[in-house]
Amino acid sequence: MYKLVRPLFFQFDPEKIHHFVTKSLKRFNRFQIGSKISRAVFTIENPILAREVFGLKFKNPVGLAAGFDKNGELMGEMANLGFGFVEVGTVTPLPQPGNPKPRMFRLKEDEALINRMGFNNLGVDVVAERIRRYRQHALRTSHLSPLTSHLIIGGNIGKNKNTPNEDAVSDYIKCFDRLFDVVDYFVVNVSSPNTPGLRALQEKGPLKELLQTLQQRNQKNDSSRPILLKIAPDLTNEQLNDIIEIVKESGIAGVIATNTTISREGLISAKNKNEIGGLSGKPLTKRSTEVIRYLSEKSGKAFPIIGVGGIHSSKDALEKLEAGASLVQLYTGFIYEGPGLIKRINQSLL
């Protein structure tokens, strides 16, 4: 069904159609009958699919990657489509509009996207309050939908564009403190190519300081939250070795591999391939799996990995799990293949 309407969707600007689709999903799921239809069509409830990773129990290992639901608007709707967990953000301390439009581009022949969104979001206070309200609503209606009442929610955090790198730690702390009571895990995003200078925080010294600071703050609380690091696919093996060392030394829970790439190698689309921004989708499939395998093997499977990047089929997801990922996330594959992809991956796991 989705493949029939996709050509129509793809006639419009990617960001505009994203807002149209998400608003339509919210309207459809606003009523109990809409939610029931979504769950009946797309979700699979089976204890075999459950995973326990970094101390959290996931209903299934297929999650929504950060970037799709930046402002915590679609958590219940995504659960109704079958996702086992949802990652909200990237969230920054202060609201910011992001980069000038247009800032998202399709590469249809490559089944890819280029985006330079620039952490556009409503700010951490708005997002935290939305997650809090969602949690309360899910508890009240848990008799109607056990699926949404136990949804694992991650908070992907970053720094504001105008915050200099030497003050970046304070931005991450603000987001961490504000979201601590409402999310299940955190993701430290230092790998987006769309905030000037952000990727410099992936260097060994600044990254070690940032993660150790957050972990120290984490351990002061009565209960801690798993902290994960999201890394770029463009790191060298030497840099990946540094990542392994830093994860072990800081004691964070794991890694998300990978974010978008600045590489344009092997693209066949003539249109949009030279746009500035991060590339996602099928061209990233192989590289993200290579990074997962390298981290898993070199570390001796010392920490969990969430695999993301170019998952457009059950086969892609299984390859990442076999390479060493404990969970997987979708974004661009979800846009190109539709919500049926979530169900197909879970069916293949069964």
From TrEMBL:
Pathway: Pyrimidine metabolism; UMP biosynthesis via de novo pathway; orotate from (S)-dihydroorotate (quinone route): step 1/1. It catalyses: (S)-dihydroorotate + a quinone = orotate + a quinol. Residues 49-349 form the Dihydroorotate dehydrogenase catalytic domain. Keywords: Cell membrane, Flavoprotein, FMN, Membrane, Oxidoreductase, Pyrimidine biosynthesis. It is a peripheral membrane protein. Gene3D superfamilies: Aldolase class I. It is an enzyme of class 1 (oxidoreductase). FMN binds at A66, G67, F68, D69, K70, T90, N156, N189, K230, T258, G281, G310, Y331, T332. GO terms for cellular component: cytoplasm; plasma membrane. PROSITE patterns: DHODEHASE_1, DHODEHASE_2. The keyword Cell membrane applies. Binds 1 FMN per subunit. This is Dihydroorotate dehydrogenase (quinone). The gene is pyrD.
